[in-house]
Amino acid sequence: xxxxxxxxxxxxxxxxxxxxxxxxxxxxxxxxxxxxxxxxxxxxxxxxxxxxxxxxxxxxxxxxxxxxxxxxxxxxxxxxxxxxxxxxxxxxxxxxxxxxxxxxxxxxxxxxxxxxxxxxxxxxxxxxxxxxxxxxxxxxxxxxxxxxxxxxxxxxxxxxxxxxxxxxxxxxxxxxxxxxxxxxxxxxxxxxxxxxxxxxxxxxxxxxxxxxxxxxxxxxxxxxxxxxxxxxxxxxxxxxxxxxxxxxxxxxxxxxxxxxxxxxxxxxxxxxxxxxxxxxxxxxxxxxxxxxxxxxxxxxxxxxxxxxxxxxxxxxxxxxxxxxxxxxxxxxxxxxxxxxxxx
Amino acid sequence: xxxxxxxxxxxxxxxxxxxxxxxxxxxxxxxxxxxxxxxxxxxxxxxxxxxxxxxxxxxxxxxxxxxxxxxxxxxxxxxxxxxxxxxxxxxxxxxxxxxxxxxxxxxxxxxxxxxxxxxxxxxxxxxxxxxxxxxxxxxxxxxxxxxxxxxxxxxxxxxxxxxxxxxxxxxxxxxxxxxxxxxxxxxxxxxxxxxxxxxxxxxxxxxxxxxxxxxxxxxxxxxxxxxxxxxxxxxxxxxxxxxxxxxxxxxxxxxxxxxxxxxxxxxxxxxxxxxxxxxxxxxxxxxxxxxxxxxxxxxxxxxxxxxxxxxxxxxxxxxxxxxxxxxxxxxxxxxxxxxxxxxxxxxxxxxxxxxxxxxxxxxxxxxxxxxxxxxxxxxxxxxxxxxxx
Lengths: 343, 389
Known about the structure:
Strand order of the largest sheet of chain A: 1-2
Helix content of chain B: 55-70%
Number of strands of chain A: 4
Distance between the termini of chain B: 34 Å
Order of helices and strands of chain B: HHHHHHHEEEEEHHHHEHHHHHH
Structural class of chain B: mainly alpha
Shape of chain B: globular
Number of helices of chain B: 17
Radius of gyration of chain A: 22 Å
Mean pLDDT of chain A: 84
Distance between the termini of chain A: 42 Å
CATH topology of the largest domain in chain B: ABC transporter involved in vitamin B12 uptake, BtuC
Shape of chain A: globular
Order of helices and strands of chain A: HHEEHHHHEHEHHHHHHHH
Radius of gyration of chain B: 22 Å
CATH architecture of chain A: Orthogonal Bundle
Number of strands of chain B: 6
Number of helices of chain A: 15
Strand order of the largest sheet of chain B: 1-6
CATH class of chain A: Mainly Alpha
Largest sheet of chain A: 2 strands, antiparallel
Helix content of chain A: 55-70%
Number of domains of chain B: 2
Oligomer: heterodimer
């Protein structure tokens, strides 16, 4: 029992990331009808927003401290970040410590801008082109974005620690009445799960309870009629692209303490996210979220040692296997509706 | 000729002449000159041209004719390579059984994968094939290590059985003709290499090209085109399209297996990275770059991409400096800095840009580009021939 709970918890953080990316992919596919292979790159850019903020906050000036010696006996050079000088020692240190959550504030405008430029500059011209063309052009764009990031940040993963307050682990088992130290779960993963739940809820609330969201949903169902009613649906769809980019970006920012960002992390997540979208049902937002968590948890179950001993290598292929089975038995995915994105 | 129409036989002859004379054509610069780095006439690269040509020709039979975009074709390439190396390990270094087995195993896998994936169409088909390819890739790295030798890559060791080897040579060969054997011809400053490996691959490429022409012109090919044009209508006329698409999928899988087998014949080493989905993307790009659904396009595209890959990744900053040395210093370093982003390690950047530019501006590929230019010279007004977008 405790092992099962542990695996469910372990699956949650990966599942949250899948769900957030898949949510954005579905939003884009449902509104614009575009298959966006560059969505993983947006996730990656978000992660590098966190790296950038961390670097900015750590910009330092060097003073020579005569009272301390380094190992050669010369006066020690002390690097002190500007933020500490400007905002005071304690607050500055806290700023640096909290750079990852703070990066969300940076990432939202950056991602909205990136999304807007991408949509207006490139995707706009591909609404009517075949899916194959959309896949190829966004795939090319993803490679270009990757290479740009690689040029600026190098090819190695960059450590971006979580704030000190969240570095420990949380003994989840005690809460449920198990022995201590059975179910241990890092705080940050809990934070990530809560964060993604909030974001997902916010996106749904936005679509469900605002006029803007209502128009977007109407446009997803029948674009032409909404256009005939005199609403500029393209403009709203562009905004949705920006929103999807921002969601992917925030997912990337918060994921950095779990996985040190490198330039190809987007591609790694992208293929799986597409599988998630297809399993959930193309064009179905709840389906994307549900299958994201489902596949994340399944993956963590498959990497249990007991199961690996039974079926070696299952952890590597479980997601694809599930996708194949689901597509063959439920051709529209878990929650796809009839007539929506049938081919 | 060979049951081809006049136009097609002319095309076949032209391709045959070009491939046979490739060592001359691709080596236009003397070996010692500064431009020699643009020469592509060495066996290793020429082999890759024709082998990836086979791969792209096969892919075009599926994508060009039926319109089904498979994003997992590299899996068959990898499967072909692995089977070929296993034949080397078990029998001997003779390439014939290796090629036969690689075509057969790739075909078998294609039957299974195609049978399942072709139940869906459009984007679902692409994702299904992608899922299968990623699955094969992951398994080749993990569970199937006894079969694939994991990250090291499958290769032939001296203690492998090689039951039929006898006194045969220790390198891949075709009944005694070693693949690596090459003769050199020096004329003036020029050096031309003629390698057996290249000519074998080129002959196989010509054979598969001939087969592709026959498929394109056959009633079967017509049926595949009909599927691309309007599958629903075909279904309404009472024709089940599944067997046709499956046949096309298997044929193109076998082509890919053959290409993979040939890759292993030229260099008896097979690694899982051949199956990665970027490799699948590359063959899509080759086909699109050349011209989807055209006969010659995929070969052109494959040659172009492989040439660009080779040349771009070879150039480094020193070479750039020597090119732009005529510029004033500050300007020179700026120009060199700019171009250095696209060459050497930055080759992927160029590849990505190429993807985008081709899809955006030249969806019909090089063939369409050539036709547009041809039309320009004939002086026909563009309004008579709207571009095929």
